[in-house]
Design goal:
acyltransferase activity; 219 residues; diaminopimelate biosynthesis; Rossmann fold; 25 strands; Acetyltransferase EpsM; Hexapep; alpha/beta; 6-stranded mixed sheet
Amino acid sequence: MLIIGAKGFAKEVLETFYHKNDLENVVFYDDITLNAPDFLFKKFKILHSKQEAQKYFQTTDSSFTIGIGKPILRKQIKDTFEALGGSLSSTISPLAQIGNFDVSIGAGNNILQGAIISNGVRLGKGCIVYYNVIVTHDVLIGDFVEISPNATLLGRCEIGSFSHIGSGAVILPDVSIGKNVVVAAGSIVTKNVPDNCMVAGNPASFKKEIAPLDFYYEG
């Protein structure tokens, strides 16, 4: 599989492949870093151009995952590499605990070790579920959502697409978070949050507006 990115989060995605004993054909992609090495950890090939990525898709493996954070950037990467012939794929750590009943996980999710996802959960595409995140029953999560370490999403809450839930934040039951929202680290969200804003605190309150998405997104 091609992991897009070759730095911070991409290295964490690599650990999932290690735990699955599935390191064969894993390569990375970095066309940004000046004088980037040709190998990560002196072992894993790093591709440096879209032409190389397209050839990899055609000759080795069409699947790719996104080893870079930031919800909007992840959507842009997904569009770029699908246009090259790639197929967006999920990486789910065998050390995560996933419910066995009525759980839906979309393409391109990165679920890291220690995450707990309960029954009745819907998880859109392109999301990050970081270390020790807890997602309890019947939670609905949109596309390209980033959930940072130790965040807790409680029953029946909803998280809109392109939102970022900060480390250690808690979303209380039945609370709805809009699209393109940032919930600051450590916040306790007790009431609904509209689109395009940042909230913080305990209880969380409005802090500032965020520029709306500059593209239409139906999900």
